[in-house]
């Protein structure tokens, strides 16, 4: 969550219909209850396989858990009354596969004017430790920050129906230290001590507090993780998650249990910082380590950043995935420096999308010790065709793909693998370019096989948004794996989002871009590679998970494709005659 001072300044003018106690729901006439908010998912900038809110402003993912039916629940920081942050609720969506989402009614509302339901998490209380669930093993408890001008406190709410509707606990708050900078509780179950464990941020002290509880109601301070890594100006959105580690030092190993080291008890502590990220604004850092129920001990003193571009923040890991399996995360694919200014607001009535769902494990190689691997959840069920739209095995690849009519979603999954790269004197480049033929705009990236082996991305030739903080170029050094002598690039482009994953997820980047024309052509080119290097390129079209194929008027539950009367287009921020945002 962002700082309360900023948020309070941004609070929309709302018209309370009644003054109520903090345990009830504060009903604003323009915010629907009990029904999903409709959204138009057809816009030119609307991601087609990523989650984005039906309308208005979304930020951090919250409360992520898997229920007893295998349904993934994603809640999110949501302002249903404006296209900037403020008036925070918990929006809600559900999915069986993490790509096809159904918008659900807002799950948690503020209790009074001036309250905000800030970030937090959710757990399934299978053993009725809370006492809320006399006759069920699928009771859900949400743990979130209640923000007011006076204080940030931690509250809980419980759900009898798998997380669709919540009742706020009568004796809230459950954790209060008289601070305005104490937020974003993330709770897990720690079986060895039969205890709930919360990580929560003392944001401006640069401290992550670890608390324990037998019942989710009474919390005891256990330890502090203080002043580690990058500080920025605030610590936010901590996550503590058990995570498997690959035994095989080769990053080419598949993410299956047989490749995970047993009983290492590795945990990941992720801390988001905002503002003050190295590239500006917000980013997430992580610490690999061990956890014994009260104290998190990092494996080394290094600071690691999860993504090498700018648009990945406040990531959360699903509660309820067995610790022996790859954990699954989703992050907010934006940056506080410009998230409230991007042109999807005035043009299409919504702001921000979530990252792809990512499977995460740790790798521990000599040159990449304790590194988080991020790999998208299997995209192949979304492929538009049984074989790739484009496939090349030429070492001197020069591929041009016009997908303007073959892929209505505009979303592609692409990969480039180079093998037999020599151990010395490697040379050459491999690049990809997406082009908007109507405007000449381009989004580019590429890899240098020699020298410091940098991989780069350039969004500077996409012209729909201009802002001093909307950095053009990103790069990362990506050493060629000495065991496999291979380079692997995997990427997804989705209208206004690009995500790339290098070498099986050893490096990843999330990049927003806002074209004025439709990206419709892809070029992949290699040049100057050493003799004997083998290259394989594949490009797949992806079906929209929001709009039924070939039927732009189709309507599915909670996904009303007609623009509704509360679309909040415009938002008081003008656009010029080219549709360009006048920030
Ligand atoms: C759940 O907890 C409540 C309160 O402690 C208790 O009344 C109830 O019997 C419990 N139910 C079960 C099945 O343990
Ligand atoms: C729980 O089950 C008992 C026994 O069937 C029943 O008497 C009680 O009303 C149930 N409680 C709730 C909250 O459903
Ligand atoms: C809470 O903190 C504020 C600001 O520091 C202080 O004025 C107030 O007395 C504190 N309240 C309590 C109950 O300690
Ligand atoms: C539930 O109880 C079982 C049996 O005591 C225990 O093994 C397990 O860790 C508990 N899990 C949770 C989430 O309470
Ligand atoms: C933990 O950090 C908080 C925030 O700085 C501080 O108030 C508290 O005293 C610390 N607790 C311990 C035991 O160090
Ligand atoms: C590691 O995995 C690679 C690729 O699957 C395999 O070729 C290699 O033999 C494995 N090494 C060990 C030590 O298991
Ligand atoms: C965890 O480790 C800390 C520091 O070594 C120690 O003080 C604490 O007692 C341990 N807690 C448990 C539950 O083992
Ligand atoms: C990770 O790799 C380092 C360096 O090779 C090694 O010292 C360490 O034991 C490894 N960690 C684990 C948990 O295997
Ligand atoms: C790499 O290039 C250097 C300088 O041209 C040359 O001396 C060396 O033999 C080359 N190494 C290999 C393995 O080709
Ligand atoms: C890739 O892009 C770089 C930077 O613009 C350029 O120097 C290189 O020639 C390009 N390579 C190919 C194969 O297009
Ligand atoms: C690419 O083409 C050039 C020029 O035709 C050739 O010299 C080079 O060997 C080729 N590279 C590979 C890796 O086949
Ligand atoms: C499009 O979807 C609507 C609503 O489901 C349906 O009524 C209509 O027949 C569909 N049109 C086509 C061309 O499939």
UniProtKB/TrEMBL annotation:
One of its GO terms (biological process) is sucrose catabolic process. Pfam families: Glyco_hydro_32C, Glyco_hydro_32N. Residues 50-364 form the Glycosyl hydrolase family 32 N-terminal domain. SUPFAM superfamilies: Arabinanase/levansucrase/invertase, Concanavalin A-like lectins/glucanases. Residues 1-19 form the signal peptide. It comes from the Eukaryota. Gene3D superfamilies: Exo-inulinase, domain 1, Glycosyl hydrolase domain, family 43. Keywords: Glycosidase, Hydrolase, Signal. GO terms for molecular function: sucrose alpha-glucosidase activity. This is Glycoside hydrolase family 32 protein. It comes from Heterodermia speciosa. The lineage of its organism: Eukaryota, Fungi, Dikarya, Ascomycota, Pezizomycotina.
């Amino acid at each position: 969550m962002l700082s309360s001072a900023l948020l309070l300044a941004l609070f929309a003018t709302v018209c309370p219909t009644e003054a109520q106690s903090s345990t009830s729901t504060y009903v604003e006439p323009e915010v629907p209850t009990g029904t999903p908010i409709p959204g138009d998912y057809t816009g030119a900038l609307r991601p087609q396989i990523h989650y984005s809110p039906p309308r208005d402003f979304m930020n951090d993912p919250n409360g992520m858990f898997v229920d007893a039916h295998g349904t993934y629940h994603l809640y999110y920081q949501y302002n249903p009354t404006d296209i900037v942050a403020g008036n925070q609720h918990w929006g809600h969506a559900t999915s069986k596969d993490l790509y096809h989402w159904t918008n659900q009614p807002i799950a948690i509302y503020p209790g009074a004017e001036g309250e905000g339901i800030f970030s937090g998490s959710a757990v399934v209380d299978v053993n009725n430790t809370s006492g809320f669930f006399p006759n069920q093993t699928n009771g859900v408890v949400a743990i979130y920050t209640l923000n007011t001008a006076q204080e940030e406190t931690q509250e809980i709410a419980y759900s009898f129906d798998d997380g669709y509707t919540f009742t706020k606990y009568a004796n809230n708050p459950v954790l209060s230290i008289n601070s305005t900078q104490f937020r974003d509780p993330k709770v897990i179950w720690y079986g060895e001590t039969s205890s709930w464990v919360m990580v929560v941020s003392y944001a401006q002290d640069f401290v992550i507090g670890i608390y324990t509880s037998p019942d989710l109601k009474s919390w005891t301070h256990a330890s502090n993780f203080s002043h580690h890594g990058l500080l920025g100006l605030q610590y936010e959105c901590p996550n503590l998650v058990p995570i498997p580690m690959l035994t095989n030092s080769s990053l080419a190993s598949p993410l299956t249990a047989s490749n995970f080291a047993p009983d290492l008890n590795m945990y990941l502590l992720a801390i988001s910082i905002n503002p003050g990220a190295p590239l500006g604004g917000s980013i997430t850092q992580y610490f690999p380590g061990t956890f014994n129920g009260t104290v998190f001990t990092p494996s080394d003193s290094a600071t690691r950043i999860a993504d090498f571009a700018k648009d990945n923040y406040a990531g959360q890991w699903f509660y309820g995935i067995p610790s022996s399996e790859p954990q699954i995360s989703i992050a907010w694919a934006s940056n506080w420096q410009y998230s409230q200014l991007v042109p999807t607001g005035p043009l299409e009535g919504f702001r921000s999308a979530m990252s792809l769902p990512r499977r995460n494990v740790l790798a521990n190689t000599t040159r990449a010790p304790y590194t988080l691997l991020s790999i998208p959840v299997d995209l192949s069920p979304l492929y538009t065709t049984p074989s790739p739209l484009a496939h090349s095995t030429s070492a001197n690849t020069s591929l041009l793909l016009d997908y303007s009519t073959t892929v209505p979603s505009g979303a592609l999954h692409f990969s480039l693998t180079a093998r037999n790269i020599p151990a010395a004197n490697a040379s050459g480049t491999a690049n990809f370019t997406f082009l908007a033929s109507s405007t000449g705009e381009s989004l580019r990236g590429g890899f240098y096989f020699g020298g410091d082996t940098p991989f780069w991305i350039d969004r500077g030739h996409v012209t729909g948004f201009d802002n001093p903080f909307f950095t053009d170029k990103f790069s990362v050094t990506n050493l060629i794996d000495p065991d496999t002598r291979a380079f692997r690039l995997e990427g997804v482009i989705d209208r206004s989002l690009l995500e790339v994953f290098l070498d099986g997820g050893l490096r990843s980047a999330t990049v927003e871009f806002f074209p004025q024309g439709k990206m419709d052509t892809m070029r992949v080119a290699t040049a100057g590679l050493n003799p004997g290097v083998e290259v394989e390129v594949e490009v797949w079209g992806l079906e929209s998970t929001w709009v039924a194929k070939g039927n732009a008027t189709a309507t599915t539950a909670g996904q009303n494709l007609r623009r509704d009367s509360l679309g909040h287009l415009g938002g008081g921020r003008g656009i010029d005659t080219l549709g360009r945002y006048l920030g």
